Amino acid sequence: MADAGMSDEQPGPAKPQRRRRDPEARKREVIEAAERVIAAHGLEGLTHRSVAAEGDLPVASTTYHFATRDDLIQLAFARSVDQFLAYLEHLDEQQPVASTTDLVERLTDAVVTACTGGDQAHWTVQYELFLAAMRRPALRPIADRTITVGRISLERYLPPARAYGVSAALSGMILHGLAGTEAPDRASVRAALAALCGTTE
């Protein structure tokens, strides 16, 4: 006989509420995992499965947000450019560039750090994607944006012709430093940038 006051049907344990996922946060996780795959294995290693494994994500998440491999590549490239632009915008936020000589020192630091510091993976991804634009026309507008933001940021300190030359030189120096067997020599980098910027101080 049931105890008084107790119903024959006892409620079961409360079901845990399903945590609502933030689609933008998941999309960002996928892109970040794609960047790590590109940095470690190049574009040839980029697949939905490799990204899912790198990010500890279900494959369905990667295919939901990025239907094709090219979608992954394009969004990874766009994010890389956005990060580059943010870096340039904050170049003198903490301590304004006071002179052309100061600019040379800052740019020299940027080249050496890109090739030897903690940002190597970021720059590797950017160059992988930049070179991919030669064979993928859909990526070329993003490559154009990379070229333009770099040049325009330097035009704050240099005449347009010098800004263009320095921007191209920076790209080449970092690429050589990442692809070569030796890190760039700071003194040589500084001397080259000083000449391009028009200062010998």
Describe the 3D structure.
The protein is mainly α and 201 residues long. Helices cover 66% and strands 0% of the residues. The protein has helices at residues 23-41, 48-55, 59-65, 69-89, 100-116, 120-132, 140-154, 160-179, 186-197. The radius of gyration is 24 Å and the shape is elongated. The termini are far apart. The model is unreliable at 15-19 (pLDDT under 50).
Shape: elongated
Radius of gyration from the alpha-carbon trace, in angstroms: 24 Å
Which strand-content bin applies to the residues?
A: under 5%
Helix and strand element order: HHHHHHHHH
N-to-C terminal Cα separation, in Å? 99 Å
| Main β-sheet description | none
Question: Strand tally, please?
Answer: 0
Contiguous helical run count: 9
Low-pLDDT segments, ≥5 res? 15-19
Helix content: 55-70%
Structural class, by secondary structure, is mainly alpha
Question: What is the residue-averaged pLDDT?
Answer: 84
In short:
By secondary structure, the protein is an all-alpha fold.
Give a topology summary.
Elements: H1 23-41, H2 48-55, H3 59-65, H4 69-89, H5 100-116, H6 120-132, H7 140-154, H8 160-179, H9 186-197
Task: Sum up the structure in keywords.
201 residues; single chain; mainly alpha; 66% helix; elongated
